[in-house]
Specification:
The complex is a heterodimer of chains A (91) and B (207). Chain A has five helices and no strands. By secondary structure, chain A is mainly alpha-helical. The longest helix of chain A is centred in the middle third of the chain and has 18 residues. Chain B contains nine helices and no strands. Chain B has 207 residues and is mostly helical. Classes of the chains: A mainly alpha (91), B mainly alpha (207).
Chain lengths: 91, 207
């Protein structure tokens, strides 16, 4: 069978397509749609880039004071202290 | 960056076992290892530094006081995320004047407005924008999502929890997580496309 999926059907499966969570036959069917449909190709490509750019977000250092206030709070509430201050590099 | 907890010398399950038996050093190591990630996640959900700091503190305090409840059926970080998400959602509820529960908001499942902008992007936004500029664009985009979508996106695509772990952390069904994730991804795609599309490239925008 060479039935081509509609764009709506393709979009409904976009997550599973991008996350590679489909059985190979169905995935091939979606791949065929995306190869032949310029709009869905663009949506697929830019959604993938969207996820990638968020995943690549640099982990920001904690704002000043947050780290020391956390340890002060934990020290006060449960007696928890940093194991070895000198061992840990502040980043 | 990625969420792998593979750090040389960091053995999570051994640390958790030691912490459960009362070893404070082990608990401290867990805190040190995860504090930035918990803060980042809390900030992304609450969109507020002060709230995120409160969430950070409460999360680790609750983790400490409820450590005996952690059965090891999930990863320690997933358990920590579940605590932090609850704390973060409580902050959101407190801040909202109408007191509605963000995750219980009715979700529009209509197919309309899912895809409007269809344009290829400039080659690589990471190279065309400074880190600060890119951070601002991404923060604004994620901030514009409804909490119900934002929370799922943060857990699944930034914290890299599985669909099942995300559902478990948010007490949602798998299908609810999937549909919210799809809408979150597509809405973010719309917003970023407006920012990153190749100039003059609206050639395909006829859907």
């Amino acid at each position: 069978m060479t039935r081509l999926l509609t764009c709506k059907q393709f979009l409904q499966e976009l997550n599973e397509f991008l996350d590679n969570e489909l059985d190979p036959a169905f995935r091939a069917e979606l791949q065929r749609h995306v190869n032949e449909c310029p709009n869905c190709w663009v949506v697929c490509d830019t959604t993938l880039k969207t996820i990638k750019v968020f995943k690549g977000m640099q982990s920001q250092p904690l704002p000043p004071g947050v780290h020391s206030r956390l340890w002060a709070y934990l020290g006060k509430r449960c007696g928890c202290k940093r194991k070895d201050e000198s061992d840990i590099t502040e980043v | 960056m990625g969420t792998s907890s593979i750090t040389p010398g960091f053995d999570e399950s051994a640390l958790v076992a030691r912490a459960k038996s009362g070893d404070m050093d082990a608990f401290s190591e867990l805190v040190t290892h995860y504090e930035r990630r918990v803060f980042r996640m809390a900030k992304q959900i609450t969109q507020n530094d002060d709230d995120a700091e409160d969430v950070l503190q409460e999360t680790f305090l609750k983790a400490y006081t409820h450590l005996d409840n952690f059965q090891g059926n999930s990863k320690f970080y997933t358990w920590l995320v579940r605590i932090a998400v609850n704390e973060a959602l409580m902050k959101l509820r407190k801040r909202r004047s109408d007191k509605t529960v963000p995750l219980d908001e009715p979700i529009n499942t209509g197919e309309d407005e899912m895809v409007r902008e269809i344009a290829v992007w400039d080659e690589n936004p990471e190279e065309s924008y400074s880190r600060e500029e890119l951070g601002t664009v991404l923060n604004e985009a994620i901030q514009s999502l409804k909490p119900a979508y934002r929370t799922v996106f943060v857990l699944r695509d930034i914290e890299e929890l599985s669909i099942e772990e995300t559902a478990e952390a948010l007490k949602l069904s798998i299908s609810a997580v999937k549909s919210r994730l799809l809408r979150a991804r597509l809405q973010l795609r719309e917003k970023l496309t407006r920012q990153f599309k190749k100039k003059g490239d609206d050639a395909f925008a006829y859907l």
